[in-house]
Amino acid sequence: MAKTVDQYFDDLQQTRLWRSIFRSGPGSSTLKRALVIQQNVFLHLFSTKVRTRVLSFSATWYLGTLTLGTFLILVATGIPLMLYYHPSAPQAYADTKDLQFVVSSGMFLRNLHRWSAHAMVFLVFAHMFKVFYRGAYRPPREFNWVIGVILLLITLLLSYTGYLLPWDQLAYWAITVGSNIASAVPVIGDKIHFLLLGGHTVNANALLRFYVLHCMILPLTAMFFVAIHFWRIRKDGGLYNHDSEPATVRARNAGSAVKETN
Amino acid sequence: MNEKPASLWQRLFGDSVRAFGVISVVFLLSIAIAPAKNFFSEWRHYQRGYLKTIRNRSDANTLQRHFAGGIQQVWLPELGVVDRCTSCHVGLKEAGLSDVPTQPYRTHPPIPHKLDQFGCTTCHRGQGAATTVAESHRSTLAWEQPILPAKYIESSCGQCHRGQLAGTPQLNQGRALLARQGCLHCHTVKLPDGSTLKATDDPPSLSHIADKTSREWIFAWLKDPQAYASTSTMPNFKLSDDDARDISAFLIANSSPLPGDTVNVPAKASADPAAGASLYGESFCASCHAVQNAAGNIVGGDVGPELTRVGTKVKPEWLQAWLRNPRAYNPATGMPHYRFNDGQVAMLAGFLQGKADSDFLSNVHLDTATPEQVAHGKRLVSDYGCASCHEIAGIRKPENFAPELSRIGSKPVTQLIFLSGMQHTLPDYIAGKIKNPRAFSPGLKMPQYTFTPQQIDALTTALLSLNERSYTLPSSLAVPGRVETDYQPAGKAGKLMTDLACFSCHRINGHGSDMAPDLTWEGSSVQRDWLVQFFKNPGTLRPALIRRMPRFNLTDGEVNELADYIMTVYQSPKVDRDSMPLGGYSQGQIELGRQLFYGKYSCQGCHIVDTKTDKGYIGPTLTHVGSRLTAAWIYEWMRNPQSLRPGTVEPNRAMNDEDARALTAFLISQKGGEKSSRSSKAANSNSHAREVAKR
Questions:
Q1: Which residues of A lie inside 8 Å of B (Cβ-Cβ)?
Q2: Which domains, ranges and CATH numbers included, belong to chain B?
Q3: What per-residue confidence (pLDDT) applies to A78?
Q4: Which of A114, A78, A133, A128 lies closest to A229, judged by CA?
Q5: pTM exceeds 0.90 for this model
Q6: From the CA of B474, how many Å to the nearest CA of chain A?
């Protein structure tokens, strides 16, 4: 009798190599499955137990996961793009042209990065609307909502800083306009403007600054807050499910109690 | 259950393993599009085509050996050039492929530059970094500058070469037109070296116009300058009758009489017309002025105004005064002050007055101007920027009257407004604007010129050369043009030279015109006696030329003044004219020189020494050279003609000292067939004159 895929997987999990890496052996007891999640540095952020109902498409439309997916695509395409790009004033545009014309599949990388960025902004908004209209921001999840707002801002800043990097006319003027908006802040507006651009106009300093923000500071900050965001999902009682929320349960119980007293 | 066939959806996405498999395959296929596009790229297609083209040729092996696959590029960081054109244009450097009918595989036509030194886009424009035809040749969203049409290609030479080039007739013509047709009076053109292009025309001052001509003529002229003279550089402002009437009223009212620039016409003004015509010819007026002949052809020079209908224009008393001394009316004129006597003035004036066209003014009837008309005329004169070209009393020359054109050749297409039906390219815009400026907006002030299509192309070429790249190119690549100095000779002789307008034809120390020889080192080159004789009778030198030095009827005092000045001041540091005698060479040396002349160097191919046997017409005739040039000059000229006159056609024969001395001895003995006793006399009188000058 041929082994099934699951049996091969079981055999694999019993090997010493597997166990030395993942610290968990075979078996499908509740404990075992909980340990798989809890003992993995990445997965331990998540709940060890989830109701199948909240994993259905209708519960979340998978918007948060899709956002994470686009973020991962952006990291995966962004790193090869960094290999071909110099954040220096005369070279940046030429590098963009080289990506378009001579780098193998360079256009594909650039377009994938660009479209994923657009998709991510869209998905972040969609995710927030879904959370808002379902009331999932309410206690005990109010802090995670705040983290989400911070992540929204980081996403927008990533999008904005990435816009300058092709160093073409569109980029130049978009950043000029955008940074002028920043200088409209009362009292410290001009300081912010200067700080943002590293000068009074969009020039080589601004390009370098935006490059460091786009490729280093903002992605790392985003990862930091994403980690908190995911960890708080577990701590705040798992994914939101209206029917099993304590308030709903209490109201339901109170309702049935009223019925019983009648 | 069993008999119901599974639906396609069921079969593909029935369970999670199937769905995963199907989605993976779809995903893989879509990912594969990227490398596939890479593989089927245009440049690979053209390289395959090239290999197919050369396969059956006799030189296939050589071409195959030269061929390198993959993306090729010319990378010149200091020029900002990354040109991948050679990825598709594979055969540009293969001389053998000149028989291929079209690009991309044809050889590049021969040019004086190497492809690897300048790349492609430096001259052709377009997007060098691109590897597809559409992106590299055409204007796209991310790259405005398309390939430059081949008929304007000379403009790219002008990016570095600021002066004239033998290989760029169209660019040279365009630049000359730009300077001559008045463009530069309104439009400023700054060059990358910081200098400003200067106009070469000389629009007349209108401050004393009433002395010169009538209001009717001004009216008719303003309405259509080319109807008066087809070669006129005055453009047509398309004025209405009322506007032309008011401008003419203002110009006449604004004119002030100039003391001494008109004379009373003597009663016997009507001189013999034939004598006037021959005086016109003898004075070489046609070197500068043109006249339309009966066949309708323009004959004569373009330095001064055309005189076909001059009798209709100028007042007789003004014309006589002008011929007597043009500097009284216009101190800055390029016209020489001929010292005509009264009879000659009357004769020439009568002849010119006869060049009239009664039709020109027949339909012009103007009433006396009202003050309102004069005021309106003044406003129009400032509105149209007349003072940009003409000096008009009471009206200041407007500054930046028209847009600056220093970088017009790289103006972004997005900043242009095109006419409907026009190709949206910069060359088409420039050409269209020159052809019919007012079509772009009836309110524009730019007047209508009468250029031929060929002239429009030339002007467009010249304007396209004024571009951003000419500023960004390394300054070491710039080939400066000839620098025009503001040299002015000093003293009494200097005044005399200004009066005779020597610089209208001659060039001295980098100032002046090219019509006649450069005189910077004239003092080293000629003998004083010859120079004196030449001033008195200029017809002796090169009598076959049509444009020649006119006779100015100078007094002996004036001739001596000029000769002394030229002999003293215009000396070359390379030639000491007293270092070699003008005579006394041994007969043997002269004979050796003769043998060298006819034998080793075959000078008779271009020059004539013996009018009976020699047939050379390329260089000047040398029958009298011994009484014209100094021996030291001839010797130095034999050694290295280009060092004395850069660009002369005389070849440098790299003569040794002995040959040069022998030839000098032979040539200095050529004194027009007279005995040698005269030559020694001339040498004596020459040294005598120098002694006088020293005192």
A1: 90, 94, 97-98, 100-102, 104-105, 107-108, 168
A2: 8-39 (no CATH), 42-147 (no CATH), 159-200+402-477 (2.60.40.420), 209-359 (1.10.760.10), 491-569 (1.10.760.10), 587-694 (1.10.760.10)
A3: 96
A4: A128
A5: no
A6: 16
